[in-house]
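Ticket #251: bound-state structure for 1,3-dihydroxyacetonephosphate.
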Amino acid sequence: MRKNIVAGNWKMNTTVPEGIALAKAVAAKAAEVPAEVGLVVAPPFTHLCAVAEALKGSPVGLSAQNCADKTKGAYTGEVSVDMLVSTGCQYTILGHSERRQYYGETDEKLVEKTKLALAAGLKVILCVGENLEEREAGKHFDVVKAQTENVLYNFTAEDMANVIVAYEPVWAIGTGKTATAEQAEEIHACIRKVLAAKFGQTVADDTTILYGGSCKPSNAKELFAQPDIDGGLIGGAALKADDFIQIALSF
Ligand code: 13P
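RESOLUTION: The complex was predicted; output attached.
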């Protein structure tokens, strides 16, 4: 059966010393969280080695926020999957809406990145989600379905054991505007149906689907109570260890 996960996407926040302190604070409180809830933090690339060290001996997983779509060579400024693995990282987020929106991340690129990440032994947290215009036009199901299919239909049922999907409606990210539990649940159920159509019901049932977008201690319980919401990808509230842990205690 699928695992519940609460993952903190730190985005472009914290210096290295601040990141180490935050990771240590999360690790120190991790024992309060039941073992069946997975905790993951995703600091910036520059922090990965130091945060891996800070998390040693704790159950908290380590994720990158992105990876290159090439293996190595003359790609200035890029970070390869092998580099990530060598830091002690076990996951990478891919396809975050901020990368799609500001850095031209396409579904085609995400297929390449997902292939490389899985081949290197990383678990992938693939983000999907519609923007405000798409939601207001009633296209949210179609957009999320297409994003999910365009990337994940290139993979096998076995690959899916290492894929986590995160539904993050763009209009709810960093805005304080959370999708209602019902709005989130109907999209999560739709994603699971899309996965079942290609990989079968067992794989769909075993896939963790996270919600992201202004998730915080005050609304996590209601969101996580939904049958198809298996945890959260947390932005702002992951920058405070207490809030992050509080969210992880909301199942
Ligand atoms: P906020 O929780 O700050 O809205 O960010 C959500 C997010 O984008 C996580 O990846």
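RESOLUTION NOTES: The mean pLDDT is 97.
TICKET STATUS: resolved
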